[in-house]
């Protein structure tokens, strides 16, 4: 399946920001909002959108760093870029960011190219936002890859009312074992939540080209994600 791409403009009470969009051949289609890592809307994120579009989804990746600096697009390949990325991460306002995610969901839900069904998927920082999208937005389903800081947000778990899948790297350098344990203890019995552990894998195991990329684990996680969204957004 081929697809076309473009740019959307999302309006909020605080201002407007852009979003990368990829479309499948056949629309209207269910949509997925893709939430970025700390490197901005870069090639990795655009490639994820393109892949989702080939699977039959409208995929939209909003520029969630627009309040810091619009159009950030860096890689994970140099020390200088890592320093920049951590600076953006520290400056990022999570509460404002999740409001921007809601604004994106609302915009996408009302597009002619979509069926009105909208899911969310996020990676790293976006993995945290994916969890929060299940607690604070009207997403129809959410998937988080190696989300950071979830253990500090578990008091919101009672707000989860939609299907949520979390991919957890057991050797995640940014998520200590005790934090992983707290997430499991809080969410294992939640009927809305599915947790998958990837034993031996480090943070960002699904980031193509990344230092910890694991093709087998990425294929497994991405396959689970595809099935999940097909089941819940169809």
From TrEMBL:
The keyword Hydrolase applies. Keywords: Hydrolase. Signal peptide: none annotated. Residues 17-232 form the Dienelactone hydrolase domain. It holds the Pfam family DLH. The keyword Ubl conjugation does not apply. GO terms for molecular function: hydrolase activity. InterPro entries: AB_hydrolase_fold, Dienelactn_hydro, Dienelactone_hydrolase-like. This is Dienelactone hydrolase family protein. The lineage of its organism: Bacteria, Pseudomonadati, Pseudomonadota, Alphaproteobacteria, Futianiales.
């Amino acid at each position: 399946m081929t697809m076309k791409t473009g740019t959307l403009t999302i309006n909020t009470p605080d201002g407007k920001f852009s979003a990368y969009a990829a479309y499948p051949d056949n629309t209207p289609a269910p949509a997925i909002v893709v939430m970025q890592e700390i490197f901005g809307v870069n090639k990795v994120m655009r490639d994820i959108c393109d892949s989702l579009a080939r699977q039959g989804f409208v995929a939209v990746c909003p520029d969630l760093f627009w309040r810091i600096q619009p159009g950030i697009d860096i890689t994970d390949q140099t020390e200088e870029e890592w320093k920049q990325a951590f600076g953006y991460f520290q400056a990022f306002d999570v509460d404002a960011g999740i409001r921007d995610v809601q604004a994106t969901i609302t915009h996408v839900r009302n597009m002619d190219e979509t069926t009105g069904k909208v899911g969310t998927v996020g990676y790293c920082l976006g993995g945290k936002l994916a969890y929060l999208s299940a607690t604070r937005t009207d997403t129809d389903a959410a998937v988080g890859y190696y989300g950071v800081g979830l253990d500090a947000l578990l008091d919101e778990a009672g707000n989860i009312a939609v299907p949520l899948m979390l991919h957890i790297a057991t050797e995640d350098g940014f998520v200590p074992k005790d934090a992983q344990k707290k997430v499991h203890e809080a969410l294992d019995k939640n009927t809305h939540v599915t947790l998958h552990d990837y034993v031996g894998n480090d943070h960002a195991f699904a980031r193509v080209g990344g230092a910890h990329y694991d093709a087998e684990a990425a294929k497994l996680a991405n396959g689970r994600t595809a099935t999940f969204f097909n089941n819940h957004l169809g």
